[in-house]
């Protein structure tokens, strides 16, 4: 069973525009959510996270929104830059747990 | 400042051979994790250590897999009698004991022929 789902395998946006990456989850025990970025031949790089007690967290060009009632989170990148082109993974962790459960990833391409 | 390092970066082996991978975590991190990633999927949890204690193992970790962290610093992941289905990227991550973020190494790409 896929507890974290990223339904869009790919997303293409123009440089300077907003990129919105979406993630849905089914496990009500998840209380901490993270976004990672991955370039080819490298490990995932931590981007931004959010606790379930918040609905928004912002760090520079990156903002993560959490809608607990809908079990949905999204990552907004504004403005998008060509260097943002990578695979983005959503991950979640259960209360008092350690393991991260990842989605399948979304390939973001930012066109100059 | 050094991040998580993994060795080797690539490994090609014949089916039935044993392989061992090494992970060196960020020095002050006492938790160390192993994940496996196959093409088109996100990383899947295998196991994790707090210091030298192995605290959790996934059902993905068959009896051909064994992980150790003998002195609470670096860790090794051994796969015995490799199968073609073991071909994947093996990722190591580390974190503080009460830290929420896990920091990943570059991974070891295993190809079983």
Describe the secondary-structure layout.
The complex is a heterodimer of chains A (112) and B (113).
Chain A: E1 4-5, E2 10-14, E3 19-25, E4 30-38, E5 45-51, E6 56-59, E7 62-67, E8 72-77, E9 86-94, E10 101-102, E11 106-111
Parallel strand pairs in A: 2-11
Antiparallel strand pairs in A: 1-3, 3-8, 4-5, 4-9, 6-7, 7-8, 9-10, 9-11
Chain B: E1 5-7, E2 10-13, E3 19-24, E4 31-37, E5 44-50, E6 53-57, E7 65-68, E8 75-79, E9 88-95, E10 103-104, E11 108-112
Parallel strand pairs in B: 2-11
Antiparallel strand pairs in B: 1-3, 3-8, 4-5, 4-9, 5-6, 7-8, 9-10, 9-11
If you had to describe this structure to a student in words, what would you say it looks like?
The complex is a heterodimer of chains A (about 110) and B (about 110). By secondary structure, chain A is mainly beta. Helices cover about 0% and strands about 55% of the residues of chain A. In chain A, a hairpin with a 6-residue loop joins β9 (about 85-95) and β10 (about 100). Chain B has no helices and eleven strands. Chain B has strands spanning about 5, 10-15, 20-25, 30-35, 45-50, 55, 65-70, 75-80, 90-95, 105, 110. In chain B, strands 2, 4, 5, 6, 9, 10 and 11 form a seven-stranded mixed beta sheet that branches. In chain B, strands 1-3-8-7 form a four-stranded antiparallel beta sheet, with no helix packed on it. The mean pLDDT of chain B is about 95. At the A-B interface, β4, β5, β9 and β10 of A face β4, β5 and β10 of B.
The amount of helix of chain A comes to under 10%
> What count of helical segments of chain A does DSSP give?
0
H/E order of the elements of chain A? EEEEEEEEEEE
Give the CA-CA distance, first to last residue of chain B: 37 Å
Any idea what the radius of gyration of chain A is? 13 Å
General shape of chain A: globular
Q: Output the structural class of chain B.
A: mainly beta
How much of the sequence lies in strands of chain B comes to over 45%
Number of helices of chain B: 0
Give the rounded overall mean pLDDT of chain A. Answer: 95
Number of strands of chain A: 11
Element-by-element helix/strand order of chain B: EEEEEEEEEEE
Main beta sheet of chain A: strand number and arrangement? Answer: 6 strands, mixed
Distance between the termini of chain A: 38 Å
Largest interface pair: A-B, 23 and 25 residues
| DSSP strand content of chain A | over 45%
Oligomer: heterodimer
The whole-number mean of residue pLDDT values of chain B reads 94
The helix-and-strand class of chain A reads mainly beta
